[in-house]
Each structure stands twice: as structure tokens, then as C-alpha cells.
Design a protein that fits this description.
This protein has helices at residues 8-29, 36-49, 60-70, 88-95, 114-120, 140-149, 206-215, 237-246, 250-267, 297-306, 336-344, 356-370, and strands at residues 53-57, 78-81, 99-102, 125-129, 155-157, 165-168, 171-174, 181-185, 199-203, 274-275, 283-284, 290-294, 345-348. By secondary structure, it is of the alpha/beta class. The chain folds into 2 domains: 8-247, Type I PLP-dependent aspartate aminotransferase-like (Major domain) (Aspartate Aminotransferase, domain 2); 249-370, Aspartate Aminotransferase, domain 1 (Alpha-Beta Complex), CATH 3.90.1150. Helix 1 (8-29) crosses helix 8, helix 2 crosses helix 8 (237-246) and helix 5 runs parallel beside helix 6.
Length: 371
């Protein structure tokens, strides 16, 4: 049996009658850049995130970079973030002119540890970038007062967490609702993926929204008039049309991922070498990834590959140990929880179209390896 890590062809077959007419409509209109579908998508994503404004851009990376540029970082300015995430989180801090300061993670959720953030704040700190990793939100109610006490904006990296939510003071709060600004990614493998690259920024700060709209369009709100030096980061109308066609399916897809995750967790229960994902009781996880901690990780991955089962390691090298950040002075052992996670994690197939037979095959293969 073949069980790929992700099967976008299966998704396409299920929804092509919705998506293809939307794409054809854009082709016939010939409005490929900033067409009406872009503004419509912005309204829908703002509604989903319970934010006042949404600003589409060219990628999830730009959805972090442009807000960081709005902070106006200067040499020596620091931005606190996690070392256990995709490279763009720290790369955008560097490219916006700041210095990433890495803080260790909570071992249970893999998310930034708010307690450690407080100890990392210095007079040079200008912002905090938490990452809602694998589809589970950071404990924002713990992080927000820490940042507010020092006047620091929070830029949420929700690239893996569109539609995720967390219960705060008895109320559900969405990814994108609580921070100063939040970046989403529409990379094809995401829960809501485009047919190419794309991103979205959401905020309820009107002045910030106006500035982000300028920054994505060469720094000007009016053609050929530029208030500052921005960049070209527009979401293609074709991508917006694809995303609008997919959006009505998102909640059901995420619910299906949760069902698969629960099935894995039950099927792997009692298997000592495997630690299944911990879900914070305050969170509704969307399981962009189902990530286990395992013994003999690399050997297990090779075994699963031999059985036709796709897996991935997100992420094998924590950011504080990447060669490009060696000048920051971090040594192995500096952030032990992130380093331990990088040596143990393995993500299993969890996409909505998986069959029960495929899930059982993965579970049996893992159990067989450890027998």
C-alpha cells in the first residue's frame, strides 16, 4: 500500500468542479493582478480570523516580512522568536534589519515558552514572533501581558494554523485575532493551500493595515506615488480564486484531520517508544502536521519509507544552530528542548482524504518496527 505524506491530487479530484470554474472566470476576465477575487478573499479571511483588516501578499514569508518592516528595525534591534520552526520566521527578522533572539520551546506543544520570553526581553527588544506550530496555538493569554508590559508588538506566525482557535477566559479566540498582526501562508501543502504561493496579513490596527497595503505595492497607495520604499508582494488573482473556492471546505478538512489524529493517538497508545502529540486542553488543533516523538527516529523513517509510507522531519536543525546564524553565538546545548525535539520528531500523513485502511497500515507499520 502507498500512503504519501500529502496527496493533493486526491484533494483536487474531490473539489475540481468548484475550483476549475473559478479559475476559468479569472482567465476570461484577464484581471490577473489585484482582480476582484483578491479583495473578496481578504474580506473572507478577515472574517475567519475575526480581524478588522486582511491584506493579501505574495507568500507566507512576505506576510511576516512586511509587518517586521513596519516595526522599522534598526541595527542591533532584537526580535524574540522560537528556534523550532520553518526558517522564514527568523529569516524575515534578519531581512527586516533585526537580530533574532531565540527562546526555547515547551516540550509538550513544541511552541514558544512564554515564561522564557520574559527573561529574554532587553532594552533592545522590539517585537515578539510566536509560531503556532503544526496547527496548535501558543498560550497567547500568557504571552500578551508579558509583551504588553514592555510595550512590544506581537506578530503571530500562523502559517500552519489558519482556522485554529484557543479558549481564553472562557471564549474561543482565533489565530489572527489576538496579535498586533498575523501572517498566514497559502503554500500548496497548507490546510488552505493555493495552486502556487500566497500569503495574507490580518490586523485590527487600521493605521498598520494602511501601511501594509502600501508596503506590498512599492510603498504607495496611489500608482506612481510612493510614501516609502516598499516591495512588490501582490497575491495573484488566480490564487485568490482558487483559495475562495477551497475556503468553504476548510472547516471540514480540519475536522477530518482531527479525526485522523485521534485515530492515530488511539492506535499508538501504549507503544512506549512513541509519544503522540499533546493537545493543550485550551486549544482546538487543526493538525497541519501530526508529529510524534519517537526513539530511533531515522531508522523508523527508513522503515516506513520501505513500506511506502511518506513522512517528514519538521525540523531537523533548530534555527539557533543553522550556519547562517553562527555569528549570534549560540552553541549546541543552549536551547535543549528545541534540540531534543529536532532529534526526535517525525510527522505522519494526516491529510483529510486518508482512508481508514491507510491509517491502519501506518499504525501497523510503526508497531511492527518496534516489535
Amino acid at each position: 500500500m502507498n500512503v504519501p505524506l500529502l496527496d493533493l491530487v486526491a484533494q483536487y479530484r474531490a473539489i475540481k468542479d468548484s475550483v476549475l470554474p473559478a479559475v476559468q472566470a479569472v482567465v476570461e476576465s484577464q484581471q490577473f493582478v489585484m482582480g476582484p477575487a483578491v479583495a473578496q478573499l481578504e474580506r473572507e479571511i478577515a472574517r475567519l480570523a475575526r480581524a478588522q483588516h486582511a491584506i493579501a501578499c505574495a507568500s507566507g514569508t512576505d506576510a511576516l516580512l512586511l509587518p517586521l518592516k513596519a516595526v522599522q528595525l534598526r541595527p542591533g534591534d532584537e526580535v524574540i522568536t522560537t528556534p523550532f520552526t520553518f526558517f522564514a520566521t527568523a529569516g524575515t527578522i534578519h531581512n527586516a534589519g533585526g537580530t533574532p533572539v531565540f527562546v526555547d520551546i515547551e516540550p509538550e506543544t513544541f511552541n514558544l515558552d512564554p515564561t522564557r520570553v520574559a527573561a529574554a526581553i532587553t532594552p533592545r527588544t522590539r517585537a515578539v514572533v510566536p509560531v503556532h506550530l503544526y496547527g496548535q496555538m501558543v498560550a497567547m493569554e500568557r504571552l500578551l501581558p508579558i509583551a504588553a508590559a514592555s510595550g512590544l508588538p506581537i506578530i503571530e506566525d500562523a502559517a500552519q494554523a489558519i482556522g485554529a482557535r484557543r479558549r481564553v477566559d472562557g471564549q474561543w479566540r482565533m489565530a489572527g485575532e489576538l496579535g498586533w498582526v498575523t501572517g498566514f501562508s497559502f503554500f500548496p501543502s497548507k490546510n488552505l493551500g493555493a495552486w502556487g504561493d500566497g500569503g495574507m496579513m490580518v490586523t485590527s490596527d487600521e493605521r498598520l493595515a494602511e501601511r501594509l497595503r502600501k508596503l506590498r505595492l512599492h510603498g504607495g497607495a496611489k500608482q506612481y506615488h510612493h510614501d516609502e520604499v516598499g516591495t512588490n508582494s501582490r497575491l495573484d488573482t488566480l490564487q485568490a480564486a482558487v483559495l475562495l473556492a477551497k475556503l468553504p471546505y476548510l472547516a471540514a478538512w480540519s475536522a477530518r484531520r482531527r479525526e485522523h489524529a485521534a485515530y492515530y493517538t488511539q492506535g499508538l497508545a501504549g507503544l512506549t517508544p512513541v509519544m503522540t502529540p499533546a493537545v493543550d486542553s485550551c486549544n482546538e488543533h487543526i493538525f497541519h502536521q501530526y508529529t510524534v516523538r519517537v526513539e530511533r527516529r531515522d531508522a523508523l523513517q527508513a522503515h516506513l519509507k520501505s513500506k511506502g509510507i511518506g513522512t517528514a522531519i519538521y525540523y531537523p536543525v533548530p534555527l539557533h544552530l543553522q550556519n547562517c546564524f553562527s555569528e549570534l553565538g549560540y552553541k549546541r546545548g543552549a536551547l535543549p528542548e528545541a534540540e531534543r525535539a529536532a532529534a526526535e520528531v517525525l510527522s505522519l500523513p494526516v491529510y483529510p482524504e486518508l482512508s481508514g485502511e491507510q491509517l491502519d497500515y501506518v499504525i501497523d507499520a510503526i508497531r511492527g518496527f518496534y516489535r
